[in-house]
Write a structure and sequence with these properties.
single chain, alpha+beta, two-stranded antiparallel ribbon, elongated
Length: about 180
Amino acid sequence: MTPIEQLLPALYRQTSEDTELQRVLTLMLEQAERDKDFTLEQLFPSTTSGWGLELWERAWGIPVDRTLSDQRRRDRILAKVKGTGTSTLEVIRAIAQSFSPYPAEVTEESALYKFVVWYLGTIGEVEHKQDLIDIINELKPAHLQWEIKYRQEQDSNLLVGAFPRQGDQRIVWEVDCT
């Protein structure tokens, strides 16, 4: 028995025609619920997909490229949305953060007219680095230089060693990383 049938009086469950009508109405309601949920997902750049991606891209002036994955297109939209307004270090940090699961920080080198985007906890490059470069170049003041760097910190000591060619001796040094 469908949820709709449970709400109706027993009179509507007596014939096979009524049962079939309730089954079809239940299917239509379930489809309407899925359509509503999908449409609501298109209202937010973090959950949009399909046709919603193209609407967001056109609204923010991002070139539509259907060959990219939905996640990459979504990341580009989110970075553009976060980059609106005055270009502060915090805005640039938020944009950089949207391109990596690792923490990002931005340090300013005022005397050199430069800032550095640091990704902490990794030494590997971020995915879609060119998208990040394009967005930051669009937002930053023209006179500032910038670069991306990676840093992974080690809290414990490291053992560094070498084995001579004969293999009969071991040389080990302890390196203090604190």
